[in-house]
Amino acid sequence: MLVAHLPLYGLRVRTPDLELRLADLAELARLGDAAAAGIHDPDVLPFMHPWTQEPDVGRRVILGALAELGQWRPDDWSLGLVAFHDGEPIGRQILSAKEYAVTREVRTWSWMGRSFHGQGLGTQMRAAVLALAFDGLGALSACSAAFLDNHSSLRVSEKLGYQPDGVQVDAVRGRPTISRRLRLTRERWALHSRVPVEIEGLDPCLEMFGLG
After folding, report:
1. Residue 65 belongs to domain with CATH number
2. How many CB atoms lie within 10 A of CB 200?
3. DSSP one-letter string for 141-164
4. Where is the N-acetyltransferase domain (predicted)?
5. How many C-beta atoms surround the C-beta of residue 27 within 10 A?
6. Sign of the CA dihedral with 113 first, then 121, 90, and 135 last
7. Tens digits of per-residue pLDDT, 176-208?
């Protein structure tokens, strides 16, 4: 069985409205369709790289998900869980870290099909992987960043207890663009974690996270 070789395929993270897990190929194809149908307003660019504006965005989503697993190392990993709502894939929530066994710090980013925005599902997606990080993997801190005009992402961070962690300037499409950095500590998470989250199948995966 696949899960015997890649126990990550047995990992499940559930919230009241979502299940987050790795997807099989058929599900990745449906996820690619969701991405191709639109992720954000065409006049807005919420990501550092304009991958959502490429004509083959569905293919990029599928190949990106497969590449993450192919490049996985316990000291440098990126877990791209697919969010399922009523059985359909609606987006991806990524949790990543380098030298996690030493730093105990994770980073997050995500995307969700445009038709699902404004329903609180983005908050549940982020809360799910934060619970995985803090409650399951023993993280000490989680970092995120968003452009100043990415109000939805910044609101999610505020709801979940993140605090300002400075700013950074990057070159985006040839222009300087400011992002707001945010950090959530284990103590702040304990005070703000209000979304019920259930984690299943984590123990066999710990070695893959560098914790075995």
Report:
1. 3.40.630.30
2. 12
3. EEEEEEETT-HHHHHHHHHTT-EE
4. 11-187
5. 17
6. positive
7. 888 889 999 999 999 987 899 999 999 999 999
Structural domain count, the chain: 1
CB 197 within 8 A of CB 14: yes
Strand partners, 107: 96, 143
Residues 168, 212: Cα–Cα separation, whole Å: 35
- Please state the separation of Cα 147 from the chain's center in Å: 17
- Collect all residues with Cβ–Cβ distance below 8 Å to 37 and sequence separation of at least 6: 113, 114, 115
Which residues are within 8 A (CB) of 36 and not within 5 positions of it... i.e. 6 or more apart? 57, 58
Contacts of residue 114, defined as CB under 8 A and 6 or more positions apart, other chains included, come to 37, 38, 39, 40, 41
Give yes or no for a contact between 170 and 48, defined as CB atoms under 8 angstroms apart: yes
Q: What is the pLDDT of residues 55-79, one digit of tens each?
A: 788 888 899 899 999 999 999 999 9
Task: Estimate to the nearest angstrom the gap between the alpha carbon of 70 and the chain centroid.
Answer: 18
Helix (H/G/I), strand (E/B), else coil: 174: coil
Tokens 């109000």 belong to 151
